[in-house]
């Protein structure tokens, strides 16, 4: 038992008399007898008052500090106390070597935490959107300071209230100008699909007649470090039940990518999508990114891929945000303007029945889970290919409930190949045994490489699944979308033409000796980077302001 904090304000000095007991704060008890004295009751009332003041108007599950003079590892959050009413404080301590980042609300490496001198996240003024009586003229809403402005100005990305409160309550369920809830009468295939909770099967096909689609996707650069893994997983002789080769989707980031290898993946029928140019190691950069940032990163990445991997069919149409840090309406407005078709960055929380892909013309059918709570709230003519969280419990029959993981390679409790094997098979059965929503198995190839035996285990899972099931298909994200737009039962799927394109590709690569262009750019001073491509070398290493490498200013 230990105490937290020192030399704090009056409320904090009261809290100092609380003890850290089983992860929650309570008043200290000095003897085995129960003290019913007036002093004791008054002391407990004082604790309750202080805690209620701390928790007043505080967002649910927000962690904060009781002292800036502690070790920066200790934080608390307000928890509703159903037994006595009000709130109590639940405590968390970061592991040794990590500090708590108030901004990100996570434990992070010490060198990345810059707010140890703060007690709490800045308290931002909120608008008065729900009042018992109208307080503004028709068509207007009230800012936090009482000012009334046109309702259309709320959550448009520009602060119009004097206190900036019109840009604060802009979540999926808060935005006054949010996308409408699903209306199946208006949302009709092939252009639109939605359902109230996201679990409905497109076309209302019987689950037993729905193919279980599995998308194996990889994020990051494609190069000599991982090409061997891809060749092992996607063998030429590995066929889906329709006789076509198993396919995957590659969300490609630019730096260190070998574009001759990307060209070969595309030739063999795999899908190429974008993962940004810089893959910048700053989650805030993506969550709060400007329109120009998203334009340069994603449209620029597509321009680089199409040019240097010589992809001319217009099928680079998908986006995945680094760290799955969605950029809110800004990202999706850029995607719509640039004719991207789908995003695959939003995680659907772990549930009994997984979620099918849906149109963002209507409101998301699930909570904005993770993603720094910056999911799109406005209508966008973009498809979302959600990443259903994976159940990572080692033994789902007995283990306590754990939070899910978005990507396979972020399941931090998976240490050996037997755990990995059980986890992917259990999640396959979760999807296959319910509504057969597509199962997304997303990887960082380096994770497979450093974990001995994991690539072999994935390879074995694919082989055994295809051998034992005639209704399971390993397909690209684009192929999933093609099926959703034209739902086809298993009896007719062998003749589904959209899945016949590049069905069984053989032969040699179009380019066996790419140009290993050593290049520089003023945007990355002091670096010389090799660009492997089958076309002529550009003048400069392509980057944000010069995606063609010819000195063209993209913005």
Short description, anyone?
The chain is of the alpha/beta class. Helix content is 22%, strand content 15%.
First-last Cα distance:
57 Å
Total strands: the figure is 22
Question: How would you characterize the largest beta sheet?
Answer: 5 strands, parallel
Helix/strand-derived class? alpha/beta
Q: Which percent bin holds the helix content? A: 10-25%
Beta-strand level of the residues, as a percent range? 5-15%
**Spatial extent as radius of gyration:** 26 Å
Explained architecture:
The chain is built from 12 helices and 22 strands. Strand 6 and strand 7 form a beta hairpin. It starts with 9 loop residues before the first helix and ends in a 22-residue tail after the last strand. With 555 residues, it is of the alpha/beta class. Helix 6 (291-308) packs across helix 7 (328-337) and helix 8 (417-432) runs parallel beside helix 10 (454-468). The strands form 8 sheets. Strands 10, 11, 12, 19 and 20 form a 5-stranded parallel sheet that branches. The chain has a 4-stranded mixed sheet with strand order 13-14-17-16, with helices on one face. It is 22% helix and 15% strand.
Task: Tell me the layout of helices and strands.
Elements: H1 10-15, E1 19-21, E2 24-26, H2 38-55, E3 63-64, E4 74-80, E5 87-93, E6 98-101, E7 106-109, E8 140-142, E9 148-150, E10 212-220, H3 227-233, E11 249-252, H4 259-267, E12 271-274, H5 283-287, H6 291-308, E13 318-319, H7 328-337, E14 342-343, E15 347-348, E16 358-359, E17 383-384, E18 387-388, H8 417-432, E19 439-443, H9 445-450, H10 454-468, E20 472-474, H11 477-485, H12 490-493, E21 515-519, E22 529-533
Parallel strand pairs: 10-11, 10-19, 10-20, 11-12, 13-14, 14-17, 15-18
Antiparallel strand pairs: 1-2, 3-4, 4-5, 6-7, 8-9, 16-17, 21-22
């Amino acid at each position: 038992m230990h105490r937290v904090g020192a030399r704090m304000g009056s409320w904090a000095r009261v809290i100092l008399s609380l003890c850290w007991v089983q992860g929650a704060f309570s008043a200290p008890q000095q003897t085995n007898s129960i003290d019913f004295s007036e002093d004791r009751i008054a002391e407990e009332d004082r604790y309750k008052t202080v805690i209620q003041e701390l928790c007043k108007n505080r967002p649910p599950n927000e962690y904060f500090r009781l002292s800036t003079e502690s070790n920066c590892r200790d934080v608390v959050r307000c928890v509703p106390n159903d037994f006595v009413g009000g709130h109590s404080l639940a405590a968390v301590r970061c592991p040794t070597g990590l500090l708590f980042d108030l901004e990100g609300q996570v434990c992070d490496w010490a060198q990345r935490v810059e707010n140890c001198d703060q007690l709490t996240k800045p308290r931002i003024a909120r608008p008065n959107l729900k009042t018992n009586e109208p307080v503004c003229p028709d068509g207007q809403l009230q800012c936090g300071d009482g000012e009334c402005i046109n309702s259309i100005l709320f959550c448009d990305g520009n602060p119009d209230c004097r206190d900036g409160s019109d840009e604060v309550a802009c979540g999926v369920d808060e935005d006054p100008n949010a996308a409408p809830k699903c209306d199946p009468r208006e949302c009709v295939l092939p252009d639109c699909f939605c359902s109230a909770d996201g679990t409905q099967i497109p076309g209302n096909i019987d689950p037993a007649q729905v193919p279980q689609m599995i998308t194996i996707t990889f994020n990051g650069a494609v190069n000599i470090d991982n090409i061997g893994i891809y060749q092992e997983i996607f063998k030429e002789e590995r066929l889906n039940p329709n006789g076509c080769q198993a396919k995957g989707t590659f969300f490609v980031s630019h730096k260190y990518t070998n574009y001759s290898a990307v060209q070969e993946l595309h030739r063999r029928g795999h899908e190429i999508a974008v993962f940004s140019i810089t893959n910048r190691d700053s989650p805030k950069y993506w969550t709060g990114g400007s329109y120009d940032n998203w334009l340069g990163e994603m449209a620029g990445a597509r321009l680089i891929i199409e040019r240097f991997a010589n992809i001319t069919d217009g099928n680079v149409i998908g986006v995945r945000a680094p760290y799955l840090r969605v950029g809110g309406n800004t990202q999706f407005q850029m995607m719509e303007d640039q004719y991207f078709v789908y995003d695959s960055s939003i995680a659907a929380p772990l549930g009994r029945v997984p979620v099918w892909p849906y149109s963002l013309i209507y409101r998301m059918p699930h909570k904005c889970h993770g993603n720094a709570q910056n999911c799109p709230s406005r209508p966008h003519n973009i498809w979302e290919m959600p990443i259903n969280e994976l159940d990572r419990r080692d033994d789902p029959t007995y283990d306590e409930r754990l939070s899910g993981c978005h990507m396979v390679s972020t399941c931090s409790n998976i240490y050996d190949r037997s755990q990995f094997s059980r986890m992917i098979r259990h999640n396959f059965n979760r999807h296959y045994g319910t509504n057969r929503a597509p199962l997304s198995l997303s990887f960082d190839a380096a994770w497979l490489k450093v974990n001995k035996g994991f690539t072999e285990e994935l390879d074995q899972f694919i082989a055994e699944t295809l051998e034992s099931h005639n209704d399971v298909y390993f397909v690209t994200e684009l192929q999933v979308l093609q099926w959703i737009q034209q739902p086809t039962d298993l009896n007719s799927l062998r003749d589904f033409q959209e899945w016949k394109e590049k069905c069984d590709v053989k032969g040699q690569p179009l380019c066996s000796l790419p140009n290993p262009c050593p290049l520089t750019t003023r945007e990355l001073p002091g670096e010389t980077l090799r660009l492997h491509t089958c076309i002529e070398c550009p003048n400069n290493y392509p980057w944000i302001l010069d995606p063609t490498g010819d000195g063209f200013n993209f913005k």
